[in-house]
Design goal:
3 domains; extended; 78% helix; mainly alpha
Length: 167
């Protein structure tokens, strides 16, 4: 949500665009899942670490037999876009919290932290899975997505009781 204040959108249009994007992404993921299950099977898809890569190894597109370089390029580009958007949102959040006029001087420190954490979490694939699925879910997602927003909601109701009564 920290990316949207930079754009001058009508709130209703923004909500409509976001809803449409969520629906389109859900349909795309469902289509990919059906495609993976139909080509390599449910057992192989659940066993494989990267089922879409297994699918890319099997698929042929005309005279192209080996599509795994395209999978690698897609994965790298998608990862770069994801990290860029998350880093930008983090920098804009820091700028908003501390009421800073410029955010450019935050690029080096935030980039360094992201780089250091990426080295920590990506030492090996089993460690990456352990940290990413077990520890991050419990110790980062639960506090940042449930506990802190609930505390902020309660504090907003306590600090501004007039706005609650007027509506």
């Amino acid at each position: 949500m920290m990316v949207f204040p930079e754009f001058k959108f009508n709130t209703n249009k923004l909500a409509k665009y976001c809803f449409t994007l969520v629906i389109a992404t859900g349909l795309w993921l469902a289509l990919n899942t059906v495609e993976i299950f139909s080509v390599i099977g449910v057992a192989e898809a659940t066993r494989a670490n990267f089922p879409f890569y297994e699918l890319a190894l099997i698929m042929k597109f005309g005279t192209f037999r080996n599509l795994d370089p395209f999978y690698a390029i897609e994965t790298v580009i998608g990862g770069v876009i994801k990290i860029t958007v998350f880093a930008y949102a983090a920098i804009k959040t820091i700028q908003t919290i501390f009421n800073l006029k410029e955010y450019k001087f935050l690029l080096i420190p935030v980039g360094t932290i992201i780089f250091a954490l990426s080295l920590l979490i990506a030492d090996s694939y089993p460690l990456h899975i352990l940290i990413g699925l077990k520890l991050t879910t419990l110790y980062i997602h639960v506090p940042l997505q449930i506990i802190i927003p609930l505390i902020a909601l309660i504090l907003s109701f306590i600090r501004n009781p007039k706005t609650r009564k007027n509506k």
